[in-house]
Sequence to fold (385 residues):
Amino acid sequence: MAIEIVEVSSEKQLKEFIRFQITLYENCPRFVPPIIRDEFITLSKNHNPSFEVCDTKLWLAYKDGVLSGRIAGIIHKSYIEKWGNRYARFGWFDVIDDENVSNALFTTVENWAVENGMEALHGPLGFTDFDPEGILIDGFEELATITERYNHSYYQNFIELAGFHKDADWVEYEVIAPKSIPEKVKRVAQKVLDRYHLKVVKINSVRELLPYSKGIFRIINDIYGLMYGFTPITEKQIEFYIGKYIKYLTPDLISIITNSDNQVVAFGITMPSYSKALQKIGGKYYPFGQCTINKAKKSNDTLDMYFIGVHPEYQNKGLVAVIFNDMLGRVLNKGFVKAETNIEFESNDKVRSLWDFFEHRQHKRRRSYFKYLVQKSRSEDAKLI
Fold:
C-alpha cells in the first residue's frame, strides 16, 4: 500500500479537491453536496479575500494512485492577533474509511503548522463562521443542511486516534412551527417596540435589504466576537459573503429591527431549506440548478434558521420576541411546518432556552477538536522559566 500526499497547486487539482467529497458521498441519502462553483470561489485565493488574512494550504491524499482524502491547513493571522494563540486550524477534511490515509493527512498539516511556528491545531474550522465547522458526531440519520456538512461516523474515531480531543460542541434542533403566534409573544413585542422607539423594517426585495447588510455584519462582529474560533469579518469578506449567499435569500423571511436613527439593532435571517434542492442538482448550479433552487424558495415545508443577532446595547430587552413576532406570521402563511436551527454552542443556554416555547428535539451534534503540537506552549514562556 502506497500513500502519497500532494499539495494542491493548480486549478485542476483544486477541482479534484472539491469534487472528492461529492464522489465520496454520492450514494449517501443524508449528504447535501455544495455548489461546486461556490466551493471553487471559496477555496480560490483569486476570489476569496480571506486569503489576505490567512496562510492556506490544501492537500490531496492518494492511496495506490487513487484519490482517497483531502484536508486544508489554515493559519489565520487575524485569529492569532485577536486571541493571542498560535493555533493553526484544519478544515475541509474528508477521507475514505482508512486510518492510514487519515493519519497521513493529519501528519502533513501538523508538520506544516509546526514549521510555521504554530503550537497547536484545531478544527474542523474554515476561514470564518460562514464556512462549515466541526464534524458530525451524532445525528447520522438526519438530512444535512447547506451550511453544515454531513460526514461518515468513522471521522470521529480517526481524529481521536490521531491524538485530538474535544474542544467545543455545537448542537442542532428541529423545531415544530406553532399553529399561531403565541399571544404573549405579540404583547411583549409591541411593548418593546413602543418602549425603545423601534420599528420593524419591511423588506420586499434583496435590493431593499442591501443598505442594512453592513449593519447586520457589524452586529455579528460585536456579539460573536468572544465566541469560539471567531475572527472579525473584514469589509471585503462582507462583500464576498453577500455575493455568495444572495441567491439563497428570501427577503420576506428576514427580519430587520431599527432604532429611531434607522440603525440596525436586531435581525433574524432564515431561508427555505435547500437541502433537497442541492441533492437534486448534485453541485451544479448551471444550467438548471437555479430553477431548482428558485422552486425550493416557493414550495417548501422546512425552514433553515441561520442567524439571530441583537446589538449589545439592546440585549436582554425582549428584542428576540420582536423578531419572532415579525417572522412567525410570514412563516406560517408560507406553509412551513418545521425549522432547522443549525448550530449553536451546547453551553449557550440563552439561545437554547428559546426553543422551550416550541415543540422541538435535539437531533444533531457537531464537534471541533484540539491538539497541542509542541511541548512548550510558547517560546516566550520558556524564557521565563
Remarks:
- Residues 377-385 have pLDDT under 50 and may be disordered.
- The chain is about 35% helix and 25% strand.
- The two ends are 46 Å apart (CA to CA).
- Residues 206-223 form the longest helix (18 residues).
